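FORM 7B: Structural annotation worksheet

SECTION A. Query
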Amino acid sequence: MQTLKKYTDDQLVAQYAKGSNEAFDVLLSRHQSRIFSYIFHIVKNRDLAEDIFQETFVKAIMTIKQGRYTENGKFSAWITRIAHNLIIDYYRQEKSENTVSTDEDETNLLNRKDLSEDNIEDEMVINQIHNDVRRIVDALPESQREVLVMRYYRNMSFKEIADATNVSINTALGRMRYAILNMRRIAEENNIVLTF
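SECTION B. Predicted structure
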């Protein structure tokens, strides 16, 4: 690990691409403070900043592992650009979710499903979705299920998960990624629809 700290960012990326998780841990510790500060400075919300920060490094991991990272500049600029794009995506999604057109005369802003109480049929569908999710989570390998439960049900950060499970942050992020991919696969194979 000490030797890796002397490596340049591009050398660390190359080592990580060859399978050295410790190389990514060095990259993460080298850039995490600056990237988190950058995100937090823009979004001004700690929870949101943590989510975008974690998503940034998940995206970096996936890009490097898929061999799509190209050394066309500095790693720090590349990872900052990923964070910046994720921030933009978040605000675009937020804006589109909060946009309602009143151009049509028959649009009644107060006649919306989210403003009404659920009926018994809605509750049954929601309960079925929850049961399906539980069954899919139970079908995951133990290590993936553990990370997923800690992240989504206990609201733990990836740093806390890594500490609790005695693995690197990179390993925790990887397990989460595989858990989500496996959940999608299981849902598709069993024709399970998880949307309401």
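SECTION C. Observations
Residues 1-96 form a domain with the Rna Polymerase Sigma Factor; Chain: A fold (CATH 1.10.1740.10). The chain has two domains: 1-96, 119-196.

SECTION D. Sign-off
Analyst initials: ____
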